[in-house]
Write a structure and sequence with these properties.
This is NlpE C-terminal OB domain-containing protein. There is one protein chain. The protein is globular, with a radius of gyration of 15 Å. The protein has a seven-stranded antiparallel beta sheet with strand order 1-2-3-4-5-6-7, with no helix packed on it. By secondary structure, it is an all-beta fold. Helices cover about 0% and strands about 45% of the residues. It has one domain (about 1-105).
């Protein structure tokens, strides 16, 4: 089981939590956290983390150079198909973040 939670706050900060539970994994449960600042331009969200302010024993993921793109249903699309709003990470130095989809809840 993998769970990703990304919170984009209105003040330009973000929190990220990754949780995995794999029955035969070592360790069986993993929690990873990241935080920092985000900016939006067009449909792209750029993330940054300050080494002095945003890293400690809990927050270890480095989001510098990470970028994600909003994916939504085009307003001109009048079909009945359902497209969930999501962020797709298109760049990141965190290898498993590449092409990761985080859905809006």
């Amino acid at each position: 089981m993998f769970d990703y939670k990304l919170t984009l706050n209105q003040d330009g900060t973000f929190l990220f939590h990754y949780y995995s539970k794999i029955k035969n994994g070592i360790p069986t449960e993993v929690n990873k956290y990241g935080k920092g600042k985000w900016t939006a331009k067009d449909n792209v969200i750029s993330f940054s983390s300050n080494k002095q302010e945003d890293f400690d024993e809990k927050y270890t993921l480095d989001f510098n150079t990470s970028k994600a793109r909003f994916v939504t249903k085009n307003p001109r699309d009048k079909s009945d198909r359902i497209i969930k709003t999501k962020l797709t990470f298109v760049e990141s130095e965190i290898p498993w973040m590449q092409r990761l989809d985080v859905f809006k809840i």
